[in-house]
Write a structure and sequence with these properties.
By secondary structure, the chain is mostly beta strands. It has one domain: Porin (Beta Barrel), CATH 2.40.160.20. The protein is about 10% helix and about 55% strand. It has one helix and 13 strands; from the N terminus they run αβββββββββββββ. The strands form two sheets. An eight-stranded antiparallel barrel has the order 1-5-6-7-8-11-12-13. The radius of gyration is 41 Å and the shape is rod-shaped. The mean pLDDT is about 85. This is Porin family protein. InterPro entries: Beta-barrel_OMP (IPR027385), OMP/PagP_B-barrel (IPR011250).
Length: about 280
């Protein structure tokens, strides 16, 4: 009897020690939910903004030719009959210019502005001749060019934005006196407004978030018009056939508002990666 009681007590003790061990194996810690991180609200980028600009340029001009009126008598030497002749050759040298303007960046890829450029005087040389004489002609030309321009900004890479553009407007061309330095022959120069248009290509570079350096090429065509007036000592009036101008330009633009495309792009929200558990 005593022996049986002892075995029962021993079995109970073993059972009491085993149950906590099984309970420990079955314990599961409470699940904690990860905090929810909300993505920042999307705000559309506003590229609209006013800007001002200033430019310096050097141009090479090509004069298409010069025609002028001559006078002579008819077959019976009764009346004076006007005629027409052309310069044997006419050349216009290069010159510098400066200008400025105001514009508006409409979108990421489109902007427009109004510009005014003053062309400093460039030297003109020409030559005329007839059956009995020849003459060397000299003068100077300056101009005020007003254009309304539109540009397509192709895209921005590492702060550099290539672009193309076109402009339309007018130019006030002013010719100084046309004269022959070897004779008393001279003709007063003419000044008049003419139609003009331009084609541009270049690239801009971000110096700061608002300040942009702009460099490029511009072709400008100015319609022909009166070059000089009639004078009793010479023939006239004279007309140039128009000017083709090739400019290398550089300048600065400063934009007051909107996104210039120069600021560092905003990185889209990306959720944190899931943790990787290893056994």
């Amino acid at each position: 009897m005593f022996y049986l009681t002892r075995k029962l007590l021993l079995a109970g003790a073993v059972a009491g020690l085993t149950v906590p061990a099984f309970a420990a194996d079955l314990y599961e810690p409470p699940v904690e939910e990860a905090p929810v991180i909300e993505a920042p609200a999307y705000e559309p980028v506003d590229f609209g903004g006013w800007y001002i600009r200033g430019d310096l340029a050097y141009r090479k001009s090509e004069l298409r030719g010069v025609d002028y009126t001559t006078y002579g008598f008819d077959d019976c030497n009764c009346i004076i009959v006007p005629g027409s002749k052309s310069f044997d050759w006419a050349k216009l040298k290069g010159g510098f210019s400066f200008g400025g303007g105001v514009g508006y960046k409409v979108s990421e890829h489109f902007r427009t502005d109004l510009t005014a450029d003053y062309w400093f005087k460039s030297n003109f040389d020409g030559h005329t001749s007839d059956f009995v004489s020849e003459s060397t002609e000299k003068s100077k030309m300056s101009a005020l060019l007003l254009l309304a321009n539109a540009y397509v900004d192709i895209g921005t890479w590492h702060g550099i934005t290539p672009y193309v553009g076109a402009g339309i407007g007018g130019a006030k061309v002013k010719w100084d006196e046309v004269y022959d330095p070897n004779t008393p022959e001279h003709n007063p120069g003419a000044s008049n407004w003419r139609f003009a248009y331009a084609l541009m290509a270049g690239a801009s570079y971000c110096l700061t978030d608002n300040l942009i350096f702009d460099a490029g090429y511009r072709y400008t065509h100015i319609q022909g018009g009166r070059m000089f007036e009639w004078d009793a000592s010479s023939a006239g009036p004279g007309y140039d056939r128009g000017l083709d101008n090739h400019e290398v330009r550089g300048g600065l633009r400063y934009q007051f508002g909107g996104n210039t495309g120069c600021a560092a792009p905003q990185v889209a929200y990306e959720p944190a990666p899931e943790p990787i558990y290893t056994k």
